[in-house]
Amino acid sequence: MSTQAPHNTLLIPGPIEFDDAVLQSMSHYAESHVAPGFVKVFGETITLTRKLFQSTNPSAQPFIIAGSGTLGWDLVSANLIEKGENALVLNTGYFGDSFGKCLETYGAQVTHLRAPIGDRPAFEEIEHALKQKPYKVITITHVDTSTGVLNDIKTIAQVVRRVSPNTLVVVDGVCSVGSEEIAFDEWDLDAVVTASQKAIGCPPGLSIVMCSGRAIQAATARKTPASAYYASIANWLPIMQNYENNKPSYFATPPTQLVHALHTTLSQITARPMAERFAIHVAASDRVKAAVAELGMTQVAPKPECQAHGMTAMYLPQGLVAPDVLPGLLKRGVIFAAGLHKEIAPKYIRFGHMGVSISDPNRNDVDKALAALKEALAEAKQAKGL
Amino acid sequence: MSTQAPHNTLLIPGPIEFDDAVLQSMSHYAESHVAPGFVKVFGETITLTRKLFQSTNPSAQPFIIAGSGTLGWDLVSANLIEKGENALVLNTGYFGDSFGKCLETYGAQVTHLRAPIGDRPAFEEIEHALKQKPYKVITITHVDTSTGVLNDIKTIAQVVRRVSPNTLVVVDGVCSVGSEEIAFDEWDLDAVVTASQKAIGCPPGLSIVMCSGRAIQAATARKTPASAYYASIANWLPIMQNYENNKPSYFATPPTQLVHALHTTLSQITARPMAERFAIHVAASDRVKAAVAELGMTQVAPKPECQAHGMTAMYLPQGLVAPDVLPGLLKRGVIFAAGLHKEIAPKYIRFGHMGVSISDPNRNDVDKALAALKEALAEAKQAKGL
């Protein structure tokens, strides 16, 4: 029996439904951010973040900072690249555009390699682009929350290392960390930017960034000082190292309750092999995608290899728009998200299937959602005389 | 009967003890950040923030952003001042030094007007400094958490308006908002930077910045673009305006649970006249300071007009250092903070007396703390043969 108040099931691509214990951690009593109890919990949380990324290389460093996922773009843009240096943005829509704007704010010269809606840049195109200029960073949206497009960051990292070995491989993993396979060390990634509220299953409010030794080196051996204060890797690095070594340290007050919640969810997630977690997400995704096809709908990302496993963006049947269907879902206790990609927004809806909604055997959120979707579509079609 | 687990009473200058209802709000079930329920709560929270600052001028704008209080310095430094412009920092210690570093990170030319430990810059010195150069901003630490020094921001703002009327008056109110009187419009302030976890009584994780119309104008009519993305006033302004007008809006995912908690505490705080709240803090502070004197101790801030009302920094009796006394307090269920000002750190301790610890008539935190302090001091003196 859940301890949460009755509510509609939140199945958007983040924030997601929470485990009871995670939410209870949010109500932790007041603690000093430098007292032994909290220092231990924060230090363990940093170590658990390494496990989340399947990383054992001590030169890699997780950062856990009060902020939204967006703050991670500032951490990358203000620390890993200097004014006038080149950045290649693999652009699959909304989030590539915004990451590009963030990079430009800090003085980077940004080149966008854009893919058509629902697709991703081909490896040959990426290789070709990398040969045109020396790029300090390449950024990839691992899962584009606006379209459900999945990028193959493992293969892209291989291409980068072959063609332009010094380019830092930066992954926007806000909508992928915890649901899509990531082997940070093995794939030789340099930075993965994420947030607490998606497949990690913690309430929003934490910016989480995993950096390689190569990225830390780039941030700390800059020709010019980092161009941000709160988003400065140099300012946070000793803090993260100290907490992980069980020493209190102060740069800015950490969000103690959110850190407790992150500790709880990461303890749950890493209690089993990560491969198992990814397989559960793949299985749930396959089930959702089969059901969507059975309902006569296509996905915004049509190619199977480009489809995320923690969400599905589906075009509505001809003649229907999102406001015809979302209220019917809500009436049945299910919340999906409207479209976000501005060129196609009214024509599609987004279903987030990650975290406890698919991993907790006591929940039947996916079955409930698919049944509600079927009924809401039929009702909407009838109302429109389709 | 509190719903919180039994714990030692946290009486540091933030984070502070929480009201049960505030902590319960932290466990709010998952919600979409753009769904009507949350949009209403966030919008109301922005409006309640105006009340907290006793502001009715519609051109003023509160910002509530996921982050620590430190992020507010970046908001000021990246938006209100441009590269090469002058900033005058009224420096009473640790936080003035850090705010200065933040301003320099974004290219400001910083002049520190330093006061001796425990004192504050005199009005004549401030007037003299303002006449030396055109300053774009002046920053004042309202209450210096490291020493308990209170600045008279009302009079300083008057001096600025008389001598250098275009200088933006920026207040670091992290340790003052909610415990010290602030009349934002009436005192003609331009920016007050604060955080959720001190006298506001919400868990840490929210950066709260109140800007005047003049500050918004400076931020949006810059000669050069703002030099931050996440900390950009231009990026957040339409979001705050939309939420307050009950319209969903997206720049970065707000920390929904923390916003609920802030809504709860601000509803409680603003349910009574702010003047009453400030008077309660003054009365509690007077009681603490009298007791400290009776125990033979002096304050780091010796002048009564320079003493904060939400905290007391006290020098320990000759021969004792913080590690002699803090464990004795902890043994009696009370947590004070060690010294923070590096030149005097071991010689003093800090007692935070703000929020529910002094305003909730069902709590007796101050009595408990003063009794524990008396016993811990006696015990420490005995152990040292003093």
From TrEMBL, chains A, B:
Its EC number is 2.6.1.44. One of its GO terms (molecular function) is L-serine-pyruvate transaminase activity. This is alanine--glyoxylate transaminase. Its cofactor is pyridoxal 5'-phosphate. Pfam families: Aminotran_5. GO terms for cellular component: peroxisome. The modification N6-(pyridoxal phosphate)lysine is found at K198.
